[in-house]
Amino acid sequence: MSMFCNQCEQAANGTGCNISGVCGKKPDVAALQDHLLYGLKSLALYADKLGRDAEIDRFTIEALFATVTNVDFDPEDIAKLIQKCYQLKEKAKAASGAAISGPVADWKPAADLATMVAQGEQHGINTQHVNEDIRSTIEILMYGLKGMSAYMDHAMILGKSDDDVMAFTQKALAATTDANLGLMDFVSLCMECGKQNLTTMGLLDTLHNETYGAPTPTPVNLGTKAGKGILVTGHDLKMLEELLKQTEGKGINIYTHGEMLPAHGYPGLKKYPHLVANFGGAWQDQAREFPNFPGAIIFNTNCIQRPADSYKDRLYTWGLVQWPDVKHIEGWDFSEVINKALECPSLPENPGQEILTGFGHKAVLGVADKVIAAVKAGQIKHFFLVGGCDGAKSGRNYYTEFAEKAPQDTVIMTLACGKYRFNKLEFGDIGGIPRLLDIGQCNDAYSAIQIAVALAGAFECGVNDLPLSLILSWYEQKAVVILLTLLSLGIKNIRLGPSLPAFITPNVLNFLVENFNIMPITTAEEDLKAILG
Fold first, then answer.
1. Residue of 129, 147, 146 whose CA lies nearest to 185
2. I need a labelling partner for 127 at 20 to 30 A (CA). Which of 329, 343, 383, 500 fits?
3. 352-366 burial string, b = 16+ CB within 10 Å, else e?
4. Segment 168-194 mean pLDDT
């Protein structure tokens, strides 16, 4: 059985994984995910006619998120999603009364797993369009929808959605089946996806701030505290909150990992004294770091890798992330994880370095007068946004070197797990303003945008006229939709790395270069010289 997947930055040979995924995805899982996406398009043909249906909209978001890199590796679970997709398609078909014909509209999955896999093999990436440039743009749109679904899933967990975003999601999925649409039609849909993602990230930002308070600059210890421990990795704050509630008074310390680090900046989460530290770094280091954490470990979103036997028995998944033979927690009862933590050895008392997080847009704009004064006084010459996804493939040391070599009169904003390349370094401050500002998770690109817009307003210029440069790293589909958001806002001169997406054809790349001057990273020295002169 073969496969083809090129949706992440680590695609084999820079073109695509065709034997087994670099992420650990096997051909049967790849085929089932392709099958699920085909089913979602079938569902969307009717859902787009039906209008808002809470069950269908919620399922669509969860199913899209399940196909994001490093989320669901369990073929049995994906098969269940495919069957549920068909049931909802039939529901939407009956409720809408729409008469639609064709192979996508008539889709029906087999009842058994093996045949479902075989069906999925007929619906891979390369079947989406005969024209490679249109296919490339459809891929960009699909990956944008996947990334946006991740952020909407977090918002839905906190109880809110957005009808316009959901309407667009169904419209866009249905559009990918329309043979009458051309290249510029899909370019327009990609730009609209970016705009809808800004709405989604704004919704999530509001929900996080309303639920947990606006993040404030907070020191986070990187060591360990004596006692039992649970390590939480992923992105979802609600799951962390529920775990903190259920572990109060039980003698268990809670540690964050990866993109959970910014949780320490929220007043509603850091009020729990047993949220003690951040353990380890970015997602790709889990195989090296998790064996050294003796407690229970739980994933609440994507970024899982094949677990080693040394920690698999104390590893749990929650939400949409799953791995075969790893215990999965349904719902909000974490007693099994808590009991496992109590059985495990304690961590030692070993205080570590402290780093700062919590520089959301409200915190930064709260001292905007100082920032603006420092710029006008010539103390701050330039701002860099250096962040995005981290990853295992070589070439990402560039971001460390760039941050290290940025002049002392510049400020570095960062977000997502790419910050682990340099967030333990000492950058000092400029007149009391830290030179390194950790804005938060990948979805907190919204905060970075708000900061940039506010600065542009203060200096009465456009964002592209600011002394601001975006140096981004990407790995998976959430990074794709953030890039679409930036492009939809007309932001230009973005440097992207460590490599350009394999799914972008030369013609599509030329379009991006001509219209947005997007460019690949080169070396830290060359790029700094080009930016600063």
1. 129
2. 500
3. eeebbbbbbbbbbbe
4. 98
Q: Can you list the positions of beta strands (E) in 150-267?
A: 218-221, 228-233, 252-257
Q: Is 454 left (phi over 0), alpha (psi -120 to 50) or beta?
A: alpha
Write the pLDDT tens digit of every residue in 73-113. Answer: 999 999 999 999 999 999 999 999 999 999 999 999 999 99
Query: How high is the mean pLDDT of the chain?
Result: 97
Q: Is the pLDDT of residue 317 over 80?
A: yes
Strand runs labelled E in 129-187: none
Secondary structure element (H or E) that encloses residue 472, with its range: strand 468-473
CA gap 443, 441 in Å, rounded: 5
Predicted TM-score (pTM) of the model is: 0.97
Q: For 38-85, what is the HEC assignment?
A: HHHHHHHHHHHHHCCCHHHHHHHHHHHHHCCCCCECCHHHHHHHHHHH
346 C-beta neighbours (distance < 10 Å), count: 18
Predicted local distance difference test score (pLDDT) of residue 2? 80
Q: What are phi and psi of 299, to 5 degrees?
A: -95, 135
- Here the tokens at position 148 are 């946006």
pLDDT reported for residue 141: 98
Among residues 489, 482, 477, 457, which one has the least CA distance to residue 69? 477
**In DSSP terms, which residues pair with 350 in a beta bridge?**
224
312 pLDDT tier (thresholds 50, 70, 90): very high
User: Given a cut of 80, is residue 1 above it in pLDDT?
Assistant: no
Phi–psi pair at 300, nearest 5 degrees? -115, -5
- Exposed, middle or buried: residue 278 (CB in 10 Å: 0-12, 13-18, 19+)? buried
The tokens for 69 are: 């890199």
Give how far Cα 238 sits from Cα of 245, 276, 341, Å: 11, 17, 20
Spatial CB neighbours of 532, under 8 Å, sequence gap ≥ 6: 381, 382, 407
